[in-house]
Amino acid sequence: MIELMNEGWDWIKSEKFHKNEAKELAQREANSPMKTCVLKYDHFENIHRLPQDQLTIEGAPNFRQVPGYLVFGTGQPTKLGFINCLEYLLSDKTEAKKVLWTSMRQEPVVYMNGQSFTPRLRENMNENMEFPGATGEYIEWLQNSFAKTIKDQVEKDKVDPFIKREERGKVKYYRDTYAEHPEDRENIEYCVQMEGEDALLTLTELYDSMKTLGFDLSYFRLPIVDEKAPRDIDFDDALTAMRQTDPDSACIFNCQMGKGRTTTGMIVACLLKDMLFGDRDKKYYTDDKVTKEEFPDEDEYLEERAKRGQYQIIDNVSKYIPGVDEAKAHIDHIIDLCGVPPAGTGLQNLRECVVWTQTKHDFEPKKKRPFWKQMSKNFIERYVYLIVFTTYVKAFSHRDFDKSFTHWIDERAELREVIGNGVKNFNWI
């Protein structure tokens, strides 16, 4: 029987099994966290942060390309922004033949009247909801549940005698004024009329609509908790997706603003394009260790180490696995290309971000310092895991990746402990 079920013979399952399955699905829907959420508009004032002389795509904030790579990034685009991006990516300006679009967002996304929205908790509207360990399939279910909740509320309002006729069919949402610290953001309430069958779409439905327009598009969801490092399995999933692409595939990544998670995805894509389609034996300069002979002043010594990303946690990691210095040099090169001008065309350089959090921590009011301290730990963890993943990729690219990253790192329990302790105790040295 098990063999038949594995072959797809679901009809052989008992009637009781199907009843229990339907009951579990109904309970899951009844307990959906989306039922108590409010809508938050994705775009905010000054969301576009790139220099004016860079290429801009209408409806796609912070759209950019990594110099020398068919790798792109953007904030969550509008429906028109999606079309504009795909038309550009598949034009003779890039010479790409197909597109792999990766959403790095863990939070569900829906589109109303061509604009993107995400659910937020009413009591915490300034921060993304988090679903640690969530799969792409679970996020897709949340999106469907959120869209259903919105539609049900609209239908309920249409027959509610206590709601004015001119307000029926409208959906309430919030839009904030941006600030670096979430507590400094102000939420403003708006209403929008929702009409027509296509007025409300999930992100997946929007991707499907792009395919019907004739774009050669593949869609991949890599849900990452905002500001956090990818999990081991996320790196494996990214590698699997990239191995299914061609050298002429354009790889584009997005999160909400197109900054943190997007940059991480772009870095990983550039690395894998190097190793899958480029000169994987190319050597990168590694002899840049900061010495006290060169910088005898302790403060200058630590500052220069920070600029070059030479932290104690990375020194500790290098004691457990060979090839870390070469891997760091390679990924630092890519981080610079994905980072801020003039070296790159993007919004964020991980090494500079770690230094930036120290400055914010030291000069912000005391009550805000824990936020910046945690941000520094998030950045250093992401940086270290990118270096470790690069070490793995460079070692296993010649072996056709016959061992997964998760398996490889599971064999090194002490490495997880070194990274965990290093992040926990990180103090900018």
Task: Tell me the distance between the termini.
Answer: 59 Å
What is the percent of helical residues?
Answer: 40-55%
Radius of gyration: 23 Å
Structural class: alpha/beta
The main pleated sheet reads as: 6 strands, mixed
- List the helices and strands in order: HHEEEHEEEHEEEHEHEHHHHHHHH
Uncertain parts = none
Q: Give the DSSP E fraction (strand runs of 2 or more residues).
A: 5-15%
Summed up, the helix count is 14
Shape: globular
Order of strands, widest sheet: 8-7-1-6-5-9
Number of strands: 11
* Mean pLDDT level: 91
Number of domains: 2
Characteristic key phrases:
five-stranded mixed sheet; 44% helix; six-stranded mixed sheet; 11 strands; 14 helices; 429 residues; alpha/beta; single chain
Structural commentary:
This protein has 14 helices and 11 strands. The protein is globular, with a radius of gyration of 23 Å. The chain is α/β, with parallel strands linked by helices. The model has no long low-confidence stretch (mean pLDDT 91). β5 and β6 form a beta hairpin.
